[in-house]
């Protein structure tokens, strides 16, 4: 499955997350249109903003807010960092 967004919705092992991270990093050059936050400070600000607001993200999806971090949640936060303001 090549769609990073779809992969980030699935449970992940540490090895899955490692593979996700490689593809995620590569996406900056292979799919630059998916990135709005191109500088490190913009990207980290996006990740931080999404984590602060993630209760609303999960509520809008009709899903419970995770009580513990997971590889899947890390992947979702990183993806949000590409575009979240």
Low-confidence stretches: none
Structural class given helices, strands, pairing? Answer: mainly alpha
Overall mean pLDDT stands at: 95
Number of helices: 4
Percentage beta strand: under 5%
Give the radius of gyration: 13 Å
User: Which assembly state applies to the chains in this document?
Assistant: single chain
Distance between the termini: 27 Å
- When the domains are counted, the total is 1
Fraction in helix? 55-70%
| SSE ordering | HHHH
Report the sheet with the most strands, covering strand number, pairing sense and barrel closure: none
- The counted number of beta strands is 0
Shape: globular
List the SSEs and their pairings.
Blueprint: H1 4-7, H2 14-30, H3 40-60, H4 71-81
Helix pairs in contact: 2-4, 3-4
Description:
The chain is mainly alpha-helical. The chain has one domain (12-81). Helix content is 62%, strand content 0%. It contains four helices and no strands. The chain has helices spanning 4-7, 14-30, 40-60, 71-81. The mean pLDDT is 95.
């Amino acid at each position: 499955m090549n769609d990073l967004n779809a992969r980030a919705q699935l449970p992940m092992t540490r090895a899955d997350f490692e593979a996700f991270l490689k593809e995620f990093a590569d996406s900056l050059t292979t799919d630059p249109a998916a990135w709005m936050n191109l500088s490190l400070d913009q990207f980290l600000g996006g990740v931080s903003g999404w984590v602060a607001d993630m209760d609303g993200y999960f509520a809008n999806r009709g899903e419970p807010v995770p009580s513990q971090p997971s590889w899947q949640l890390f992947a979702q936060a990183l993806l949000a960092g590409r575009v979240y303001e």
